[in-house]
Specification:
The protein has 104 residues and is α+β, with helices and mostly antiparallel strands. 20% of the residues lie in helices and 27% in strands. The chain has a domain of 62 residues: Ribosomal Protein L24e, Chain: T. The strands form 2 sheets. A two-stranded antiparallel ribbon has the order 1-2. A two-stranded antiparallel ribbon has the order 3-4. The longest helix is centred in the C-terminal third of the chain and has 11 residues. The radius of gyration is 24 Å and the shape is flat.
């Protein structure tokens, strides 16, 4: 065996970040109320050839006026969640989101 050390092989040093690590993760395409996320699937051609694709949720960024706190709230919601807010009321939905730990 060759006893010479290669100049390309450096000793292994474990990575130690010097910056603060955040404890939460934010996904781009997630409904804040229902939790809908993109799902994978197949696009199927006429000849039944399957290719990968993503089914994205129908997300809308919507501003609501929260009258009880006299301020505007911006939420990223699916269209189903917008219908839920219309049915149950904004204040009840915001209370539920805050109970889950969502920052609003």
């Amino acid at each position: 065996m060759n006893k010479r050390k290669s100049k390309f092989l450096a000793p292994f040093k474990p990575f130690s970040p010097t910056f603060a690590v955040q404890n939460f993760s934010i996904m781009a395409r997630v409904c804040q109320l229902t939790g809908k996320v993109p799902v994978g699937g197949h696009k199927v051609s006429h000849s039944n050839i399957k290719t990968k694709r993503r089914f994205l949720p129908n997300l809308q960024t919507k501003r609501f006026f929260l009258a009880e706190e006299d301020k505007w709230v911006t939420l990223k919601l699916s269209t189903e969640a917008i219908r839920t807010i219309n049915k149950r009321g904004l204040y009840n939905v915001v209370k539920e989101l805050r109970a889950r730990g969502e920052k609003i």
